[in-house]
# Entry
Amino acid sequence: MRDDPLDLLPELFLLGGAVLGLLACAFLPRGRGRPVAWICALGLAGGLAAASVAAAGPGGTVFASYALDPLTHVTRVAVAAATLVVVVLAAGGTAGGRSGGAGGRRLEAEVHVLLLLAALGTIVMAGAEDLLVFVAAYLLASVPGYALAGLGEDSAGTEAALKYYLMGAFLGVLTLTGVTLLYGLAGTTAYGGLGGRLPSAPSAAVACALVTLLAGVLFKAGGVPGHFWVPDVTEGAPAAVAAFVTTVPKIGAFAALFRMAGGFFTASTADWRLLLALVSVATMTLGNLAAFFQDNVRRLLAYSTISQAGYLLLPVVVAGRGDLAEPALLFYLGAYAVTNLGAFAVVVAVGGDRLRDHTGLAGRSPWLACALAVCLLGLVGTPPTAVFFGKLTAFAAAWSGGYAWLAVVAAANTVASVFYYLRWIVPVFRPGETVVAAPPGDAVPSEGAASPGVAVPREGVPSPGGVAARKGLARGAVAVACVAAAASVALGLASGVALTLGGP
Amino acid sequence: MLTVVIFLPLVVAGGLAVVPGLGDRVVVGVWIAASAADLLLTAVMWLGYGGGIGYEARARWIPSLGAGYHVGVDGLSLPLIAMTALLFLVCAVYSSGRTERVRQYAALFLALQTVCTGLFAALDLLLFFVFFDLSIVGMYFVIVGWGHGDRARSALRFFLYTFLGSLALLLGFIGLYLGGGARTFDMVDLTRDPPFADAQGVSGLVLLAVGVGLAIKTPTVPFHTWLPPAHTDAPAAGSAVLAGVMLKMGAYGLARIAMPMLPGAWQRHAWAVVVVGVVSVLYGALVALAQENVKRLVAYTSINHMGYVVLALGAAGLTAGDVQARRLAVSGAVTQMVSHGLITGALFLITGVLWDRARSYDLGRFGGIAAVAPVLTGLTAVAAFASLGLPGLSGFIAEFQILAGVVGVGLPGSVIAGVLSVCGILITAALLLRMLHRVFLGGPGELTPRVLDVRPRELAAIAPLLALSAAVGVAPRWLLDLVEPAAAAIVSLVSR
# Structure
């Protein structure tokens, strides 16, 4: 048995960063939280470096309950990198005193500590090879999230935090029930032991246990039926926090689900693949349909992340069948994280939540507009961005695992999703303040100039968001958005390398 | 060298996007120079081409998925690449004056040029798909940014519809990937060793996915409904590229991917393809006859003309028929793709001239333009005659080969298909002559006084297309020598 604490160095870096950050919070005056951000960023950078080094090291199980394999390595790297990006976004909000909070409210330094703790829980969730460790990690990942959601200290933030907490507590209890049932049936909570003993357990009870166990995982993943918190939290929480809760917990949840599926779901006689396939269909369809007519870009993005969770379930459905499922899931997770963060960075940079706040963004900041277009088209799955290759491998994995119909449903859903992403992209590239984009020769009045498609819905009371948008853009967030968009394309073009590294 | 031809425009586009403070004249100069350089390189490639797969380049890309960067040209793709280069050059010349936001416009068109050239050169399914999808995105921004009329709606419909097609295509590609024993996306390998040799049902479904994806792009009836609004509301140069180059992507994909890689399924369903082709020919012609909008009319003739290509490719799968005739049909199909690119490009640029002068496409509001704009009238007449298949112009060479081939296959059904398609030519002739008559001859119409004759840059853009069409029509050997071996190869591949 290996129990070398150095094997957990990346996790320890995160923990150390959080503890030091918390201590620093206690000694620094309010509103001067910059050093905390630095401490937390250093902790994340250290964790990232340690995780990269560890990925090249030997695999195996440590402490009899924690796996070191590509699944854990990729989760560590992706979570640390994504959290680092969120810390940068949140720090921009703290320093500039705007656009980080729901109503331009300043974010206090504790936000960084909470982010780090939630990230730590997420990583442990992915690495856990024992249901009790998983439950502990689930709580560690969730509880800071509840506090983060309420940071806005306004009614929307309160509603978000309350919904998040109630959903999380309820579904978490269900998961605990599942764990208890499984322990009663098999006499162990280790994945390996469960895999060995479940075949001889009563199948109906096992099926019940698995379904209840799924509840908490789907809550973290933002999948149906555990998705109700996503739009409210995304809208009510500060934008940087919204970026975090829609990105990072998903990574850990899907990695954990994949590990469970491959570890002991396969040992049960229940048709869990069909169940997950149906959940996947429900998730992607519901996310897409609900996103259609959102006028709030955060709610739109929230539903888009729900539909992405549906696509992410594809490789999980065929876990253990064929050698494509694991690289597909891991690559898709990484691609999704970078692309989704890019889109949220644009929201942070613009500082306005309504679609009309984004009208004419291309005129104010062509680079930001391009980054947004790349990220949104990336979420659609347009090549050569990373999500395309993630989708491609996920479809191929599903098909080769005997779920071709699921790939067809996912493809149909992808087409539907184009519609609402375009609803956001189109106004961005429209001229902002002028009413009609009149070409030089357009002096002759014609049906062309007066068409409703050209006229910009600019009339009405200027919204507070619009005012904030005109004041300028958050520079740090603009840089983050551009880097994320570039990384999304680069990861796509270099997907050959990434898939080779992440593969088994 | 092929890689340079593909990516040169993209590099220039990146330069135009990044370098600050360029004047409009400089931008246009760079744009035209880059397109001209690309055309020149393509011409050099044509002269140096020696048969088989020329200028092949291979690089590892995603080895774990069996996908690579693999490009090359043959008698099927080289004419289309050359046509693409020419069409983009004339669009650059045409758009050189009076285009708003010319910098973004030039960058977008140059990027589109890379995408289109790359698609015709791609020898890897994944690479093909990347270019296929990017062409949709690029054209969407052209329509939405520089179109007129109800452009947002048209562009959205175009995007959704063709994106649906591209995802069907993607599913088909995944099927080909998983169906092949070698787990590869490489077209050459898949062609050598066709997947699903012994799984008829699955191969039929994969062909359906690939076929629907490409049929939407081509477009054939009943998947054509995105085309008329997209064309009508796109800027003239955008329409020329959309019709001239992008419609070919669908038909090219059928000849390059569907036929050689799924020969058994293609043979089994060849009659369905023939029927779709005939219906497209007749339906496109009949609906065009009813149009009152010049640009919609030209758009529907595109459906008609691409119908001939589909008909010929379907006839190539009728293995019970005569081999020589099937080769003739495929050779005609490739010629038709090139010819249609030239002629429709010219026609759309001409409608662009009308819009530029009068801001209208309404047939009924023009009339007697011949009196005020003789050169424009001459150009339109030549283009219309080329489009309806007058001997001496490229349309005749292409359609004659296709119809002779289809009828010559010798099966009763193919003879009927050929005869019905001849009716399509008659209708096309009628509608184009009617268009000429109403717009250019007769008494002056309401908007006629606004129509000035072509400007030098417009002439410089339209005339080369028609001159080349005439060159193909009068002396087609230089083109057919390139196309015929490729056509023979396709027929032998699909007959396996």
